Each structure stands twice: as C-alpha cells, then as structure tokens.
Amino acid sequence: RHPPLSNYLSDYPPELDAILDRSLAKDPDDRYSSADEMAGEIYAVAEGVKKGQVLEMLEQAESLVKEQEFLKARELLLQVTKLDAQHTKARQLLVQVQQNLALRQRAGQIRELRFQAEAALHERQYYVAIGHLEEALRLDQSSSELAEMLESVRKKKQTRERIEGYLR
Questions:
Q1: CA 157, CA 13: separation in Å to the nearest integer?
Q2: Residues with Cβ < 8 Å from 58, sequence gap 6 or more?
C-alpha cells in the first residue's frame, strides 16, 4: 500500500485518496480502464475545489464590501471571475464595487478641484477659481454648495472688476 496523502498534505480533498487507491490497485480490474476515466474523476475533484474557493472568495469579498474596502473586494472579485467567468453574483457585486470606486474617485476629484478653487480665490485669481468650480460642477451637477460657491466667486470677480474700473 502507498502511504496516505495525509502524511504529506494537511489540507486536500479526501477524494484524492480514493483516486490514488484505485489507480494503484493490485488487481487490474479494480484500476481505471483508461487515463481519460481517471482524468474525469480528477477533473471532478478539481471542479469541487474550484467551487469551494469561489464561494470562500465571494464571502470574503462581500464582507470587504460591507467594510467599504472596495479595492480589496475588487481584486478578489476579479479572481473569482477568472475562476468562474459565469458567476452571476460575483459579476453583479463587481459592478457594484466598481460603481462605488468610481463615486469615490469622483468625490476625490471634486474635493481637489474645490481646494484648488479656494487657493485661487485666496490669490484673487477669479478666472482660475471659476474654472475649477465649473469643472467640479460638471462632475456633480446636483451640488448646490458648489453652485453657490461658483456664484459667490463670480460676484466677487464682478465686484473686483468694478473696483478696478473705478480706480482706472
């Protein structure tokens, strides 16, 4: 008899022991009749292992989404879709994760544009500030705060232009 796989491996599918036993059987009638038959059983074991991995990775990804760890969740979900391209739940979750990442990226761009606008306003560069605020509003057209800030800067620009006109 061959030594059991558990002597060498701690975590493996127990079905491999049966495949190994059958392939090394002393009686030829107890062995696989062809390599294709053995390959079919090994493939079935591999598919079971793959399904287990997919489920485990999907659970990890769902927990990462709940914790709003979208980058890590996306990496796991991309691995899941490589293992099982037809996994509907993984694909749906991946779309949700990518949407959240896009929203975060857009929010970061808006914050940066607003910061640049405030810096330009501090330097009295009204045209630059207006440009940054208009770009920020293109990214988030529903922001009343950005719209109010843009209107305020435009009024300050007009006031500045009037004062400069009077001084001239």
A1: 73
A2: 76, 77, 80, 87, 89, 90, 93
φ/ψ (deg, to 5) at 32: -65, 140
Q: What three-state secondary structure class fits 86?
A: coil
Q: What is the pLDDT of residues 14-73, one digit of tens each?
A: 899 999 999 999 999 999 999 999 999 999 999 999 999 999 999 999 999 999 999 999
pTM: predicted TM-score of the whole model, two decimal places? 0.67
**pLDDT tens digit sequence for 79-96:** 999 998 889 999 999 999
Conformational region of residue 68, where left means phi above 0, alpha means psi within -120 to 50, and beta covers everything else: left
Which long-range contacts link 80-88 to residues 24+ away (Cβ below 8 Å)? 80/54, 83/50, 83/53, 83/54, 83/57, 84/50, 84/51, 84/54, 87/54, 87/58
